[in-house]
Structure formats: structure tokens, C-alpha cells
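Figure 6 in text form: structure in, sequence out.
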């Protein structure tokens, strides 16, 4: 089974995402969120294994990463709230109302914040090497992000 590569335009942002759908299944989908400086390609082997188990696996490239839009800072707020809002819009467009969430790396913290704000949508949460501090600076930046 080959992984589908899709794009979805939402407002002025274009999301690129990979998905592998086994077809008819009673299992909830799994959303795989990569960290910095990665992209959805890093999930391909795992997506294959998940689909063999009957899961619909979806892995987007975060805005600013991979093949998704890379808007100027004047056009997109590269803050946790900006990423969370963009993610919420992507999930609404994909019609994902309940799913398993896997977060990884620095941007995994954004996924954690989404999960905390939307617990009714998350069935299971898997955290891989994501910072859990109350304050964290982005690598190479003096900006401080509130995580939890």
C-alpha cells in the first residue's frame, strides 16, 4: 500500500500531509506530528506499520516545515497559539473529531497544548521526546513560549 501525498488549502495556508488509509475500519485515526527540524516523511515507516494494524495514519508537515506553506512572519504568527489555531483548522477540514495523537520533538509541545485545550478529541496521547517545561525558548531564539 502506498502513502498518499496531499495538500489542503485553508485560508492563506497550504498544508501538505501524508496519509495511509486501510479503508473500512472501526479504529480511530492516528495523527502523527513531527518536531523541528523534521517533516512528515519521518513517519512513513511507522505509518505503514500502523496501517497494517488497521489504523488510518495522517502525518502533516507543520506550517513552515517540509512541503507545507512557509508564510512570512507578517502573515503567520509562529507562536504556539498560531500553530494551535492552524492545527485546529486542519483537523476541522479533515473532519477529525476523535483521534489518537502522537507528538514528537520541539513542536510536539504545540500538540500537547492542543490536546490540553481539546481533551474531548484525543483518545490516546503519545509523547516522544517533547519538552514539558512551563517556559521554553525556541532553539536559536530569545522568544519564550508558554507550554503548559
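Output sequence:
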Amino acid at each position: 500500500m502506498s502513502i498518499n501525498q496531499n495538500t489542503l488549502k485553508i485560508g492563506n495556508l497550504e498544508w501538505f500531509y501524508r496519509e495511509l488509509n486501510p479503508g473500512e475500519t472501526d479504529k480511530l485515526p492516528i495523527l502523527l506530528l513531527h518536531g523541528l527540524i523534521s517533516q512528515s516523511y519521518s513517519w512513513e515507516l511507522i505509518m505503514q506499520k500502523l496501517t497494517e494494524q488497521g489504523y488510518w495514519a495522517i502525518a502533516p508537515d507543520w506550517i513552515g516545515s517540509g512541503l507545507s506553506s512557509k508564510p512570512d512572519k507578517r502573515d503567520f504568527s509562529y507562536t504556539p497559539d498560531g500553530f494551535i489555531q492552524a492545527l485546529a483548522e486542519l483537523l476541522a477540514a479533515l473532519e477529525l473529531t476523535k483521534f489518537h495523537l502522537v507528538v514528537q520533538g520541539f513542536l510536539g509541545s504545540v500538540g500537547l497544548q492542543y490536546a490540553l485545550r481539546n481533551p474531548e478529541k484525543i483518545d490516546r496521547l503519545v509523547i516522544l521526546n517533547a519538552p514539558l517545561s512551563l517556559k521554553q525558548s525556541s532553539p536559536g531564539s530569545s522568544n519564550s513560549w508558554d507550554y503548559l
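Caption detail: Strands lie at 4-10, 13-20, 30-33, 57-60, 99-104, 122-128, 135-137, 144-146.
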